[in-house]
Amino acid sequence: MNIVKVKKSTVPLSKRERKRYVLFEILNAQVSEKDFYFGFWIELLSFFGSKGLAEINPKVVLFKENKVIIKCNRGKETDLIGGTAFVDKIRNKKIILNPLLTSGTIRTLKEFAKI
Amino acid sequence: MDVVYTQPLKELLQMSVYFKEPTIVLVENEKDEKVAKLNTLFPCYLITESTSDNDIQKLKGKLRAVVGGSIKANELAVKIKADYLISPSNSKQFFDLSLAKKLTDNNTTVVLMFEELMKLNSFERHLYWKNYTEVAKYCKIKKTKFIVASGCKDPLHVRPKIVRSDLAQMLGYSKELANSSIEQELK
Question: What is the pLDDT of residues B42-98, one digit of tens each?
């Protein structure tokens, strides 16, 4: 039996699903990336449910100096930003998530935040 | 524009300055009003069904808010032409198109206090959300001003303007109306 190696086809850039990146700043307390990720994820999951969260598809792209860049599906940035209103505590530290900028590229956000 | 309850005003002022947003503090007496004015915040009197007509007359020319939740409270808000109707309920069809129209004519803003939603468990939260999608729907049809306010007693529970505008949009309120309602100027 011959095993034929087939090269995996990649989806071309133009046909990939579009993403949006949102820059947040964490006010009032220092939190670690891991704590932030779990705290953030749990609050969004409890509000949107599994289906809603899968549609938003949030992912922490960058965490530096209390500034976070979160990736989400295009058209769902309103839900992501609205959902962050429910994040008020991480590891018993009271925090406020302040959305600063939404963009289609990470570079714009990095330049804006100077990180 | 954000609406909050009386709280440590120094910290609240810091938050208000940081978010670059005028903040309305709900007060019940003249003492609180003076303190709020001293801190360059906007005081707004809370009026309930038990407030006498004399007291309501005295407050003419000042910002006035009525806490909704019943038919009587809604009628009171229309009667006195209140500036804000806080947390109206639609559990028994208290809030309808005719009320929304009257509120638009009186230039009254419907306010959802976000802190109330935060305190609830997931089941109560879904009922609350359902109620507000209906209220927001009526407000959108009749172009009544509708805002989501922080409504907190702790300065660290204040939410930024963008977040609250997006919450209003999630409730089904249109983007233009949400932005214009939240950015209205205070005198």
Answer: 999 999 888 888 888 888 888 999 998 888 888 899 999 999 999 888 877 788 899
In a domain, A7, yes or no: no
Tell the CATH topology of B2-182.
TIM Barrel (3.20.20)
* Residue of B12, B125, B162 to mutate for A, most A C-beta atoms under 10 A: B162
- Residue A95 CA to residue B79 CA, distance in Å, equals 41
Residue A66 belongs to domain spanning: 18-113
Residue A9 domain-assigned (yes or no): no
Non-local (6+) Cβ contacts of B176 within 8 A are: none
| Structural domain contains residue A6 | no
Cβ contacts of B114 on chain A, cutoff 8 Å: 85
ipTM over 0.95: no
Q: What's this model's pTM, rounded to 2 decimal places?
A: 0.92
For A25, nearest residue in chain B (alpha carbons): B160
The domain that holds A98 is classified in CATH as: 3.30.70.3250
The verdict on a CB contact (< 8 Å) between B160 and A96 is yes
Cβ–Cβ gap B166/A81 under 8 Å: yes
Instruction: Please state the domain count of chain A.
Output: 1
CB-based contact B159:B115 (threshold 8 Å): no
CB B183 within 8 A of CB B164: no
